[in-house]
Amino acid sequence: MKPEALDEVLAELRISLERDDLNKAIAIIEALSPADQADLVEVLDSPDQLALFAHLDPADSADMLEEMENQEAAALAELLSSAQLADILDEMEDDEAADILGDLPAEKVSATLREMEEPKDVIPLLRYPDDTAGGLMTRAVITLRPGWTANDALTELRRVGPRSDSTYYLFVIDEQEKLLGVIGLRELVTAPVETRIADLMWTDVVSVIVTTDQEECALVLSKYGYLALPVVDEIGRFVGVITADDLIEVAEDEATEDMYLMVGITGEERAFDPARQSILKRLPWLAINIVTLFIAISVVDAFEAVIAGMVALAVFLPVVSGEGGNAGSQTATVIVRGIALGEVGPRDVMRSLTRELRIALVNGVVIGLGTGLVVYIWKGDWRIAVAVLLAMILNFLMAAATGVLIPLGLQKMKVDPALASAAFVTGFTDTFGFLFFLGIASLLM
């Protein structure tokens, strides 16, 4: 539903709640898709949320809770009674239920699990962090035996299929639950009924272990184009599967996190989060940035006499540092993205550095010559024009070097490389841009 139409529905919903007309409020909610329901409920006050959930069917509540953002879903789940939450979680896939429980206090988790009808499939998933394969996987998967026939497998599919989260892939395991192979649903349905599973299955199966980071899981799924990714434990036993829709959410979350970090925001921030939370997320990197700016200012202060002798130099300081900062951000963005996609790693330092320096040299010469020509025509002083030209070339090269080395260095130190351009790269290009420009100008005066 379009935002404008959703705003109108929200206004109508709030009026119904203010009048305690819960029947109408429920009717409004039930007429929407789960995604639109989630958008509306997220912006309601807690009492209104609880009033709605007290009258909604648990299955509808489950669909809505799955569509809500993690923070909002956890906050709402914590407000619900353990019995009410248990009824809702019983309607969810086990991995989705585990995600909700994983964000709640231990006491709430224990009380809710005691109220659930079938907690046995959810409890094992709580052992793994949310951002690992074990935390993302679902255990509702169809498994076959290599000695079965195609007809046996189809019979099992009819029996278990409605409860399975992924029926397009059927996984074959042995008596010790070791993963042996996989069969596509189409291959199984079209095979002669007496064909053995061992003759149908594909044995070259790509899997991940339960401790694999979610970002790596997303890369594997993207590389091989799978719709589901099998998960095994440390000794190779098949324990579950991660579906493509879960990893699409992971890729979106990772991209969002990188976007925030690139501009110095730690943690996800929403447009209408409490101001205090936003301040705490933004302030640390603003403080770091001001430190780097003071370093750059100290360079300018060291050349105070030069600037006093040729005041026009001060006009072009932002040009040199600004262009260097832009070039550095471009390089850092490309390298950070390459790291995220698994295309760039510590082994690629020299290759990446050589490529980016070559690009920076050409861009620096072109932009430097153009800017120098404008400066000469404007000010009529060849010394400033030459200083701008050389400073830009050198600062572009510095930007390329820092844009490559800082992200890869952070990766080596197990720090998210997306932090690179937030403060460090621009700090370097500002400082060295001033140093190059004023240093060269002082030599030419």
Highest-level CATH class of the largest domain? Mainly Alpha
Main sheet attributes: strand count, strand direction, barrel closure: 3 strands, mixed
- The portion of residues assigned to helices is 55-70%
Order of helices and strands: HHHHHHHHHHEHEEHHEHEEHHHHHHH
The H-level CATH homologous superfamily of the largest domain, spelled out, is SLC41 divalent cation transporters, integral membrane domain
Strand arrangement within the widest β-sheet reads: 1-2-3
The shape, in one word, is globular
Which structural category fits the helices and strands?
mainly alpha
How many structurally independent domains?
3
Q: What percentage of the residues does DSSP assign to strands (E)?
A: 5-15%
**Count of individual beta strands:** 6
Computed over alpha carbons, the radius of gyration is: 29 Å
CATH T-level fold name of the largest domain? Tetracycline Repressor, domain 2
Question: Which CATH architecture of the largest domain would you pick?
Answer: Orthogonal Bundle
Assembly state of the chains shown: single chain
First-to-last CA distance: 66 Å
- Number of helical stretches of at least 4 residues: 21
**pLDDT average, as an integer?**
84
Low-confidence runs: none
Describe the structure.
The protein has 21 helices and 6 strands. It is mainly alpha-helical and 445 residues long. The chain has 3 domains: 3-126, MgtE N-terminal fold, CATH 1.25.60.10; 136-252, CBS-domain (Roll), CATH 3.10.580.10; 275-444, Tetracycline Repressor, domain 2, CATH 1.10.357.20. It has a 3-stranded mixed β-sheet with strand order 1-2-3. The protein has a 3-stranded mixed β-sheet with strand order 4-5-6.
